[in-house]
Amino acid sequence: MLKDTIRNVVIVGSGPAGYTAAIYAARAGLNPLLFEGLQPGGQLTITTDVENFPGFREPVAGPELMANMRAQAERVGAEIVSDVVESVDLASRPFVIRLSSTEIPTKSLVIATGAEARWLGIPSEQKYRGRGVSACATCDGFFFRNQKVAVIGGGDSACEEANYLTNHASQVVLIHRRDQLRASNIMAERTLGNPKIRPIWFRVLDEVLGDDRGVTGLRLKDPRNGESEQIQVDGVFIAIGHRPNTEFLDGQIELDEKGYIVTAPDSTATSVKGVFAAGDVQDSVFRQAVTAAGTGCMAAIEASHFLEEQGHSH
Ligand code: NAP
Q: Which of 64, 102, 266, 267 sits 20 to 30 Å CA-CA off 129?
């Protein structure tokens, strides 16, 4: 990785969006440079079986799928670096990508930094994280075999987590701050029809209770009148949505009200010409590996067109 070489395209992020952008950019002869970030492989590396990514007759493990995407990107010529982009300067041309020890100039940029689970922000949540508090049922559900767990939230994620947890836990309580799920109808019906799942309406998590061995219960509050109650559980899964990873952009790219990067309709173009965004960092709706891969492909093709407009030749 030569510091003084101006790159054609830098890709930030190593989920399906980043690797797909790298595969397409490499095959277009753009010699892409991809920074993997803090969680190489992204959110799929904390998933077990993936059975909705086309091309796999049998379920494929998330980490294996991501290892294959990485190997494929490298095979077609992408340069992959295990480093974290700390900040960018998008006002200069070429753009400047800053790492802890160096700076890389680049003519175009693909942001594919994904999103991460949101937390409630109460101190006891962090205190018991990893000791009964989790944001990933597929990662940690296994530890709650024949125990009682809670899921916080009322969206598709919460329902998915609750349903998954019934494979392990003896009972799952779904705690929601309203009396109506935000989840899609089919997901809501499946969840409320599951005999192992009991909804608790009009409650928010006020405090995680525990001892030195981990979580023992929850203090819940009724948001309508502030009344509180305690329930006994062995674990709690927070499933209140996701937060896109955009801090390193430091306000240089337009975001929507939920913090996702705004892209032009039918495009991955952002508010800065030459900067493209793909995957969960710009998608609060679909959030699927295959849609992330699709937008990663779009971003590479659009970066290639942009470079051609700028007079890039192979
Ligand atoms: P979401 O749809 O934004 O739902 C978040 C849920 O958490 C809402 O029910 C919300 O309550 C609740 N919540 C938020 N902040 C809270 C707080 N501070 N305290 C208590 N509750 C809080 O997020 P998501 O479920 O992660 O889904 C995001 C997107 O991905 C959606 O478009 C979803 O359809 C999609 N998704 C799809 C699938 C699938 O199809 N298999 C799976 C997962 C996600 P309110 O309802 O009161 O706002």
A: 64
